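Crash report, auto-generated. Payload:
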Amino acid sequence: MIKFILDILSDPAILIGIFALLGLLLQKAKVADVVAGTIKTILGFVILGAGAQILVGSLDIFRQVFDHAFGLKGTIPNNEAIVALSMKQFGSQTAYVMILGMLVNLLLARLTPLKYIFLTGHHTLFMACLLVAVMSAGGMTGVPLVLVGGAMLGLLMVIMPALTQPFTRKVTGSDSFALGHFGSFGYIAAALVGKVIGKKGRSTEDIKVPESLRFLRDTSISMALTMGILFIVVSLVAGPTFIETSLSGGVNFLVFSIKQALVFSAGVYIILAGVRLLIAEIVPAFKGISDKLIPNAKPALDCPAVFPFAPNAVVIGFMSSFVGGLVAMFITPALGLAVIVPGLIPHFFTGATAGVYGNATGGLRGAVFGAFVNGVLISFLPAVLLTCLGAIGFAGTTFGDTDFSVVGILLSFVMRAH
Amino acid sequence: MKIMIVCGNGLGSSLMLEMAVKDVLKELKSDAQVSHADLFTAKSESADLFLGAREIIDNLDDGSRKVASVKNIMDKVEIKAVLEPFLK
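Recovered output after restart:
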C-alpha cells in the first residue's frame, strides 16, 4: 500500500493529474468536466515527453554538424525543449515546486501589497523546472529542494510583475493588468534604454510596417523556416562528406538538413501541445481560487497581452532583438562561453515585448535599441546559465528568457558559495 | 455555437482570453463552447467564431471564417461589446 502511494506521488504525470483533479473539485465543476480535465492534464504530460524524444534526435544532429563545421558547441535556447528534457529527470520535483509556488503566490497576494496573480502557467512550469535543475546541480534534493524551490517560485511570481508594473502602466495606459512573463529583466532593460536614449514624439505606431511580415506570427511556420536556414548554413560549412558518411546514411546532405529542421519544429509543436493540455485546467483553477480568496487581485498575464497596444513595435522589436542575438553569437565564444544560436521563439516573444516597452518610454528609437539590448541579453545570459545547469546543460539547448538566466545564475552562485 | 480563441503559441494569452470570454458568456447566459489554440492549429480547425488580438486574427481573415478581435484581453466590457453581435 505504501509503495502504491509512493509510486503515485513520484509519477509526475499522475501527480499533476491529481492537482488538476483537486482544482476542478474545488471549483465544483461538473463530473464530466472533472473526468475530462484530469485525463487531458495527464495526457499533456505524456505528450510533452513524446515531443522531447522527437526533438532530442534533431538537436543532437545539429550539435554534431555545428561542432564539425566550427569546432564549437552550438546551443539553441528553447524553453520548451529544455523543460521537456529536464522533466524526464526531475518531473515530480518540478510538479511539487510548481504547485507549492502557486500556493505561495496566493498567500503573498493575500497578505502583502503585491496583489499579483501570475497566470502564465507555462512560465510557472518552466521556472519551477529551472529552480529544480539548478538546485539539483548544486546538490540539493528531496523535501528541502521542494520547500525552498516553491518559496522562491512564489516570490518571483509576485516580484517580477511588480518590478515591470511602472512600465506596464505606461504601455497599457491603465492599471487593469500586470505583465506575468519571465523575460522581465529584458523588458526593464529595454524600457530604461528607451528612457535614456529615446526621443519623445515619434512612436513606432507612426510609421508603416510591411504587411508581408505578418506570417511571422505563425510560430510553427517561422520556426521551420529559420531552423531550415540555420541547418542549411551549418551543413554547407560542415560539407557533404561528413554528413553523408557519418550522419545521414548516404542521403543527400541538404535534403537531410531540411528534414531535420522540420523534425525539430515538429518536436517543438508537439511539446507545445503537451504544455497546452497540461496547464489548461490548472490555470483556470488557480484563477478561480484567487478570485474567491483575494479581493483586488491583479492578474499578471503572458506577454502577448501587451502586443495590441503597439503592433508595429512588435515587429520592429522582434527584428531588432534578433540582430542583437546575431551580434552576441560572435561575442560569446570570444569570451570562452558556448555559442548561442539565436532562437526564434525567445526573440519573437521577448524581443517583441521589449520593443513595446522601449516604445512606451522612448518611441521608435527606444523600441529599436531597447529590443537590441534584450537580444544581446538573451544570448549572453543563457550562455552563462549553461555552466550552472549540470548534466542537462550538455544537451544542446537551454532556457531562453532573461529571468530564467538571471535567477539560475544567481542561485547557482549562492549555492556554490555555501 | 463554438468560439475558438487564438494566439501565437496557443499557451498563455489565448487561455486568459478564454477565461474572460467564459465569464462574459455566463453573464450573457450563452451556452457557447469555448476553446483555445495556436495560429497554426486554428487554421485547420472549424468554429463559428475566431477571436484574438487583431494582428493575430488578421492572419485568419481570408474570407472563409467569421473573425473578431479585441485589444485588451482582460477588458470584459470590450469583450462583451465584441461578442454580443455574434450571439444573436
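Post-recovery validation: DSSP finds four helices and four strands in chain B.
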